[in-house]
UniProtKB/TrEMBL annotation:
SMART domains: AAA. PROSITE patterns: ABC_TRANSPORTER_2. This is ABC transporter, ATP-binding protein. InterPro entries: AAA+_ATPase, ABC_transporter-like_ATP-bd, MacB-like_ATP-bd, P-loop_NTPase. CDD domains: ABC_MJ0796_LolCDE_FtsE (cd03255). It comes from Anaerostipes caccae (strain DSM 14662 / CCUG 47493 / JCM 13470 / NCIMB 13811 / L1-92). Keywords: ATP-binding, Nucleotide-binding, Transport. One of its GO terms (molecular function) is ATP hydrolysis activity. Residues 6-243 form the ABC transporter domain. GO terms for cellular component: membrane protein complex. Signal peptide: none annotated.
């Protein structure tokens, strides 16, 4: 049975005060079940990054609740919070955030060292094979292409088998070929290792790898699309995503 992984309940996040208030999140609610691959789309300023920041606890919401497997994350003890940030959640940044003077393998293994997770040779190998980075494990970030850096960053984010992987525009700094490769790999990890992924993207092509898309506007969900099962093609899903974008933004694929 698929369980509820994440529940977002009437979440609000306001910036500023009174006459100068920005309601970045305005009572957004949704649920993520085990092994879902969710894309979050919306125009600039619609609240996407604020949402990920609240889920990652980088930012405190103004109101509402976030539950991880039924547990309110705002009620976590210091130890639980540490565990949540370090083990239960993985984060993939647009700009990789690898440490320059460490090799790809050392970067990937960093969470295990920080969280005393013991030896992870097998897990490293498994992820390296899946993400096609076996040959570059001994190299430093300056010796890697953008695509290789992001796949190494993905391996690091997934090393400890997090409950949820948060990704904010993970293809934003990649060319289209590397973006496609990363998305193929993330979708393999989602399917084969049941990784639950929540990803912000502006790109309909990138979003077409997801199983569900939430469209956000003014801090709430105004539309969602679910990939049809058993087998809607990526092209068909892409066409439906573009249709929603066109309806909302006047026909341009770049409006969201
Ligand atoms: N630290 C902050 N202080 C004040 N206002 C903020 C802050 N962070 C975000 N905002 C405002 O909150 C709203 C939502 O911002 P957010 O970064 O979540 O949007 P986004 O959908 O991720 O946009 P983009 O696609 O451009 O990255 C915007 O109006 C933004 O100006």
């Amino acid at each position: 049975m698929t369980g509820k992984k994440l529940e977002i309940e009437s979440l609000t996040k306001y910036y500023g005060k009174k006459e100068n208030i920005t309601k970045a999140l305005n009572g957004i609610s949704f649920q993520v079940v085990d092994s879902e691959f969710i894309g979050i789309m919306g125009s600039s300023g619609s609240g996407k990054t604020t949402l990920l920041n609240c889920i990652s606890t980088a930012s405190n919401p103004t109101g509402g609740r976030i539950l991880l497997k039924g547990q309110d994350i705002s009620k976590f003890t210091r130890k639980e919070l540490e565990n949540y940030r370090g083990r239960q959640m993985g984060y993939l940044f647009q700009n990789f955030e690898l440490i320059d003077n460490m090799t790809a393998a050392e970067n990937i293994l960093l969470p295990a060292a920080i969280h005393n997770a013991g030896r992870m040779k097998h897990r490293l190998k498994e992820l390296a094979v899946c993400l096609d980075i076996e040959d570059i494990l001994g190299k430093f970030p300056s010796e890697l292409s953008g695509g290789q850096k992001q796949r190494a960053a993905a391996a690091r984010a997934l090393l400890l088998n997090p409950e949820i992987l948060l990704a904010d525009e993970p293809t934003g700094a990649l060319d289209s070929k590397n973006a496609r490769l990363l998305m193929q790999k993330l979708s393999d990890l989602n399917r084969e290792q049941k990784a639950t992924i929540l990803m912000v993207t502006h790109d309909a092509n990138v979003a077409s790898y997801c199983s569900r898309i939430l469209f956000i506007q003014d801090g709430v969900i105004f539309h969602q699309l679910r990939k049809r099962v058993p087998a809607e093609s990526r092209q068909e899903f892409y066409d439906r995503i573009i249709a929603v974008m066109a309806q909302l933004g006047g026909g341009s694929a770049n409006v969201l």
